[in-house]
Amino acid sequence: MRILTIGGHGKVARHLTPLLAERSHEVTAVIRNPEHTADVEADGATAKVADVQSMSTPELADLVRGFDAVVWSAGAGGGDPERTYAVDRDAAIRTMDAALEAGVERYVMVSYYGAGPDHGVPEDDAFFAYADAKTAADEHLQASGLAWTLVRPSALTDDPSTGRIETSRTGAGKGSVPRADVALVIAEVLARPGTAHAVVEFNTGDTPVADELDAVSR
Question: For residue 197, what pLDDT band results from cuts at 50, 70 and 90?
């Protein structure tokens, strides 16, 4: 597959690129800072410098055209609500519309465990803008007509990969999960067309990632 990762220098994406390259996929990593080019190329991707926050839908359609799948792993990183909405909601939504316009059906969104209209984050909480932005983006994706998958990990850690998860399918609650395992989930999702239209909420568990996603696919 030809896969475009948006947010290609993020921690999850930098775990993901080598996994995809090992599986003979062709990865293009979208980065905002040209100084990150060498890093993502060392990971095994082709670097594409672009600021998705400032790009229009037609410009984004040109960016994604010709790829088999888009992975959104970008984020404003919190702090500034205005930028959070601009990136995590507005830019994300434009890339979905752009994928439709460009005929790219497969779209994998990295969200977070508990996202959705019932996220329960109060408006005076610093996390509210992110929760609200992701809710809007996720809902737009689910209504888009794309072959989407929502990947919703629990709290992220930099621990080594375990290769094992539990999902809400098996009664998982909120916990934590290594970023390396989030990348593995994305890679396995991309290998399974049957995960289209699935919401995969997960944390570290006892089931091998491939086995759990086989069950989700069924």
Answer: very high
